[in-house]
Amino acid sequence: MNIAKKISNIIIGFTILIALWQTIIWVGNYDEALFPPPLKVCKGIWTLITTGTLFVHLKVSLIRFFIGYLSAVVSAVILGLILGNLEKLWNIIDPIVQVLRPISPIAWSPFIVLWFGIGNIPAIMIIFIAAFFPVLLSTVSAVKKVDRTYLKVAENFEIKQPYLMAKIIFPAAFPFIANGLHLALGTAWIFLVAGEMVGAQSGLGYLIVDARNSLSLELVLAGIILIGILGLILDKAIRLLEKWVEKHWGNVVK
After folding, report:
1. Which residues neighbour 113 within 8 Å (Cβ) at sequence distance 6 or greater?
2. Per-domain residue ranges for the chain?
3. Disulfide-capable partner of 131 in 54, 84, 152, 188 (CB 3.0 to 4.6 Å)?
4. Class of domain 40-253
């Protein structure tokens, strides 16, 4: 599918969504103050852009997001590579991970705010927790899927650690790890907004809360739409990374 066709599909999809949105308001006869129409929300987005408010909060949110996400990825990949090679140790740790993994990062927010106060760290910690477990589990699983033939060849050539990990195991496992990075990115972006709603005084999540408190629901919807668009952009970016990985290292696991 060429780029023009993709853009055309996006325009058609959003046109249908906006038409449905406006139709619901007309049919339901909702008050604009309670359910802002598309035009009013567009004006709200334009206001956020022209006043510079959007870029101030966006910069803060992206910094928090990338610090939390990248630190989770690095630590989870390193730990996953180690635990994936130590089956007995992983069998002990796995039940603990499976207990902690389903707990929403927001459930930890009272403790995080008490320990770290209000500011950047609570949001970063929530993002870290949200991204850590998907990457850890995908890394451990990926290491276990590495073809044993590669390890036997490495043993014959007397390749030892850390070169074995860097030259054989990690390249072979990374195409599978990339799936975890994709999943973790979406989860982390969702909890970024939630984290900024409970433990921050800036960022896109705080922007929504502040607009709600001032009963500016058009700005609330504007913030929600912008968060969705940014999430889509991040998703496309990680897909490009996956394609690059498949192109360069995909043949390693075939």
Report:
1. 122, 198, 199
2. 1-30, 40-253
3. 188
4. mainly alpha
